[in-house]
Design a protein that fits this description.
The protein has helices spanning 73-79, 111-117, and strands at 15-18, 21-25, 39-48, 51-55, 62-65, 87-92, 106-109, 129-133, 140-149, 153-157, 167-176. The protein is mostly beta strands.
């Protein structure tokens, strides 16, 4: 990368001073780069052997802050040092991006519990992705239906869809603050 520099507090270049008094800023020709805590606007695609899991290239770009858990640490590490305008593709080995698959993340939920959490007439089918509230009700997480058993409930897989798989991460950095 070589020509990348961190942004100052306003994202500008160095300031002009006259006898110690600040009189303004100027933009430098050296591009700003992604660093820990950067606020980013970007397009990205995460895909595994079965294809895309998320792809913003065909729509609205994503905005996020590094270090807040919006992306996995391994995916964030790929972004560090990229310059504004950069477009790159990274190949992450199996398990690196979202950990290994954890059998304990596959859990049966009784129909009664599902009814209490949502629509009592909801029908579930293998492959459905169902959103659940976090315990603090401030967010959501998803589970994929693996099996539906009358009288027993529904078996969900709460692993990340790309857990245990090699991941291709493609990114285009649009803006850095």
């Amino acid at each position: 990368m070589g020509g990348c520099r961190p942004a100052d507090a306003q994202g500008f270049g160095r300031g002009f001073y006259n006898r110690g008094q600040f009189i303004g800023t100027f933009m430098t020709a050296t591009p700003t780069c992604v660093e820990p805590g950067s606020f980013l606007t970007l397009h990205y695609r995460l895909s595994g052997p079965s294809g895309d899991v998320i792809n913003t290239f065909d729509g609205k770009p994503a905005t996020l802050t590094l270090g807040t858990g919006e992306l996995s640490p391994a995916v964030e590490a790929c972004l560090i040092g990229l310059e504004e305008g950069a477009r790159q593709t990274f190949a992450l080995p199996a398990g690196a991006a979202f950990g290994e698959r954890n059998p304990a993340m596959q859990q049966w939920l009784a129909r009664k519990v599902l009814t209490q959490m949502g629509d009592p007439s909801e029908q579930y089918a293998v492959g459905d992705v169902v959103q659940f509230p976090t315990p603090d009700d401030k967010g959501q997480f998803a589970g994929v239906v693996l099996q539906v058993a009358e009288g027993r409930g529904v078996l969900f897989d709460f692993n990340h869809p790309l857990a245990g798989q090699p991941v291709t991460f493609e990114v285009q950095v649009i803006g850095i603050l």
